[in-house]
Design goal:
Helix 4 links the parallel strand 4 and strand 5. The chain is 45% helix and 14% strand. By secondary structure, it is α/β, with parallel strands linked by helices.
Length: 247
Amino acid sequence: MQNQKVVLITGGARRVGAVMARHLHAQNMRIIIHYRSSAADAKKLCDELNQKRADSAAMIAADLNDTKALAPLIHHASKIWGQLDVLINNASSFYPTPLGEVTEQQWDDLLASNLKGPFFLSQTAAPLLMKQKGCIINMVDIRANKPLKDFSAYCIAKAGLLMMTKALAKELAPDVRVNGIAPGVVLWPDDENEVDEATRKKILSRTPLKRAGTPEDIANTAAFLINHADYITGQIIAVDGGRSLEA
């Protein structure tokens, strides 16, 4: 059905990516779940969505750090249903890189997953998105503006993604809208030891709304940008409970 938007979500098999996939699928969109190593999670999610609505979800494996894999990924995605309406650059690497200990491999990995991959995916997908008058959504971070201690390489990459959002919004106008979502705390790390309870309470105490958000908050924002933001481009929407207002 040509009236169904086709959405490619990178890193769509787990966590926030999977929540966005379910939410946008429930709004009658067709979902392409990209994954790198989470094959079992991707298949489970894909099967779940196809059981709800036949021929509505697909999955593609690719290593976004390998630039040569990006064009085949977009080509494959475009052939599934013959169109591509939305690219959500959600996949990301995130881990500490204390200054003085940063390796070139860590730098390359964080810049590739958070900036280089999204840029070349967007460039490759642009002709398809232009044909559909589609959009790109980049998952930025409130830390693109306010660096987090010991995470310099990650913050630099996200700052680049923020500027990429604005630059591509100019480059691809008027045919493709490009916006970003900058989450605050919407999902704690899988490893509970990474952020202990005391640290969590401290973070939330500095958040004006005094609570964490949810992945659904991000999914709702993505749906808004796809369906109800025809006159919005080049913007970064902070979904952070007001955290970016604080020092």
